[in-house]
Amino acid sequence: MSADTWNAAVRDWLTRLFARPNEDPLKTVAVALILCLACSVVVSAAAVGLRPLQERNASLALKREILRVAGLDKPGQDVERAFKAIEVRLVDLDSGDYVDAPDPMSYSYRDAANDPSASIALGEQDIAGIRRRPQQMPVYLVRSQEAIETVILPVYGYGLWSTMYGLVALYPDGRRAKALTFYEQRETAGLGGEVANPQWQAKWQDKTLISPDGTPVIRVVKGSVDPSAANADQRVDGLSGATLTTNGVTHLMQFWLGSQGFGPYLEHLRACTLADANHQAEG
Fold first, then answer.
1. Over 70: is that where the pLDDT of 26 sits?
2. pLDDT band, very low/low/confident/very high, at 97 (cuts 50, 70, 90)
3. DSSP state of 3
4. Does residue 82 carry a pLDDT above 70?
5. Coil, strand or helix: which one is 245?
6. Which residues contact 200 (CB under 8 A, 6 or more apart)?
């Protein structure tokens, strides 16, 4: 059937359809279907057309969060320009080594986690509730005179209702926290959702996350931390009424700071920091 014949047949069918009485059930159903089809086409076209803008806004939002946790955010600043102070690298989690990549900022660990060829199944080791772990993850570095001043790690894991995505900034020793943020989560507002509260996030500053032997020791406790306790620097106040969410934070931090996460990389980082310190002492 040629295009002209097809178009003529459609016009004829529509003419006969709309000539029917308004109370005709066939006309009602047909008009509803036509409207649904037209609306779906408009929505699909809008989604496709807006996707580049949505992706750009998501990238800017992430860069803004990285700058914030790095302590480099300023009101009204040009995010793209400020982000040039951040060095983005990809890390092979098994070896802890950097991986060369032409544009590491374009790498999506979320996509990699859904790709069996770019991730591994965790099984019983999945304390963070993520099922699969990407083989590579990005890290964000702030340097001062070539030496690493801050290293920022993306972390994520399941809480009560949602996967919580965050960033933890570490001192060069790779053991203590400078700052923490959770920038994406859908936990219960006023309860688990308080992981996004800057006042609670500020409690993580200077906390010891990892012991000298490389074991993750940080834990979110129920209630408040006893400042007189010997391990007070390894504990963070819990969120009232949000036990499962706070347990989720503990588990995801211990996973990503451990041997299945950034543990090998942080071991390398500590070795390099120690070597630099010894070199400076000898000099």
1. yes
2. very high
3. H
4. yes
5. helix
6. 194, 237, 239
Lowest mean pLDDT: which of 39-48, 90-99, 179-188, 214-223? 39-48
Residue with tokens 């000898």: 282
What pLDDT sits at residue 281?
43
pLDDT 10s digits, 144-192: 888 899 999 999 999 999 999 999 999 999 999 999 999 999 999 999 9
Buried b (16+ CB within 10 A) or exposed e, 158-184: bbbebbbbbbbbbbbbbbbbbbbbbbb
Instruction: Please choose, from the candidates 151, 155, 133, 135, the residue with its C-alpha nearest in 3D space to the C-alpha of residue 92.
Output: 135
Listed by start position, the domains of the chain span: 3-62, 86-282
CB atoms within 10 A of CB 150: 20
- C-alpha span between 247 and 280 (Å, rounded): 41
Picking from 160, 163, 155, 200, the residue whose alpha carbon sits closest to that of residue 65 is: 155
Q: CB atoms < 10 A from the CB of 257, how many?
A: 25
Distance of CA 62 to the CA centre of its chain: 8
One-letter amino acid of 107? Y
Residue with tokens 């940080």, as numbered in its chain: 218
With residue 134 as reference, give the H or E element that holds it: strand 132-134
What is d(CA 107, CA 162) in angstroms, rounded to the nearest whole number? 23
Region of 183 please: left (phi>0), alpha (psi -120 to 50) or beta.
alpha
User: How many beta carbons lie within 10 A of that of residue 117, not counting itself?
Assistant: 6
Using N-to-C axis directions, what is the helix angle for 3-18 and 25-69, rounded to 10°? 110
